[in-house]
UniProtKB/TrEMBL annotation:
Its cofactor is Mg(2+). The keyword Metal-binding applies. GO terms for cellular component: cytoplasm. It catalyses: isopentenyl diphosphate + (2E)-geranyl diphosphate = (2E,6E)-farnesyl diphosphate + diphosphate. PROSITE patterns: POLYPRENYL_SYNTHASE_1, POLYPRENYL_SYNTHASE_2. SUPFAM superfamilies: Terpenoid synthases. This is Farnesyl diphosphate synthase. Signal peptide: none annotated. It comes from Blautia segnis.
Length: 298
């Protein structure tokens, strides 16, 4: 398997799925739709929808049932980035190599389009019921919806975001940083992989293993993000570097240093792959993808 070729192929597939679910740019709310689509189509790794698809495939599920969840998860993730970039939060001008949504459409539309993306994501996920062919498939859709709702709300992404904002610029303990990372970042990775597993027909025990592996992947991903904020370039990342330092944020790098933080990333990723391989399900691309996240430069 040529991983880079397969990655390109899957990313193109996901782009096509995303575009098929985007709102139409028409009517009086045309500007809102344009702002939503501008932020979603800004590029990115498409990691979360990819994890949904590949985990679903690992358990032998049908791709089409995963499509609405893939599009919705990318909308939810994008909504969080649009709001992260707002002047009230990180106040960033660039994201994924181009101007942030609020710099193009104004702060008010930045707020509104972010909220609209979050709401629209649930509209899209509900269309999965139209694709479910029997009661068993519909039951899986319901379970996946519950997971997605939980992992993206107060007890997941938004909860972690609130604690991050509330403690911005303040010294933080390792325990608090873990809470923020586990919720703000890991929760979306967990939600993605758990939803994929559920849609693929995984048992409750298998979903629990997937959740544990995804938690480690999410934490490793965020620590690597901290490292890249210090070691990468603005051109590579497509956004400003040293933003954590600028915003006086406590990170794994400020607590542990780059070397120990990098070691932590490697250990977490290795453990996650072991957990997934222990399920005795085959998906070479998924396992390689997790390993590749360790050495990413953007």
């Amino acid at each position: 398997m040529n991983f880079q070729d397969e990655l390109k192929k899957r990313t193109e597939e996901i782009e096509a799925v995303l575009k098929s679910y985007l709102p139409r740019e028409e009517g009086f709310a045309k500007t809102m739709a344009q702002a939503m689509n501008y932020s979603v189509l800004a590029g990115g790794k498409r990691l979360r929808p990819m994890l949904i698809l590949e985990t679903c495939r690992m358990f032998g599920g049908e791709d089409k049932l995963a499509y609405p969840f893939m599009a919705a998860m990318e909308m939810i993730h994008t909504h969080s980035l649009v709001h992260d970039d707002l002047p009230a939060l990180d106040n960033d001008d660039y994201r994924r190599g181009r101007l942030t949504t609020h710099k193009v459409y104004g702060e008010a539309m930045g707020v509104l389009s972010g909220v609209a993306l979050l709401n629209y994501a649930y509209e899209v996920m509900l269309t999965a019921f139209d694709l479910a062919e029997d009661e068993k498939a519909r039951a899986r859709v319901i379970k996946a919806l519950k997971v997605m709702s939980h992992k993206t709300g107060l007890y997941g992404m938004l909860g972690g975001q609130s604690v991050d904002v509330e403690n911005d610029g303040k010294p933080m303990s390792r325990e608090m940083i873990n809470y923020i990372y586990e919720n703000k970042t890991s929760a979306l990775i967990e939600g993605s992989m758990m939803a994929g597993a559920i849609l693929g027909g995984a048992s409750a025990e298998e979903v629990a293993v997937v959740e544990k592996a995804a938690s480690g992947i999410g934490l490793a991903f965020q620590i690597q993000d901290d490292i890249l904020d210090v070691t990468s370039t603005a051109e590579e990342l497509g956004k400003p570097i040293h933003s954590d330092e600028k915003n006086h944020k406590t990170t794994y790098v400020t607590l542990m240093g780059i070397e120990k933080a990098s070691q932590q990333v490697a250990e977490l990723s290795e453990e996650a792959v072991k957990l997934l391989e222990g399920l005795n399900k085959k998906n070479e691309f998924l396992f390689t993808l997790v390993k590749e996240l360790v050495g990413r430069r953007k």
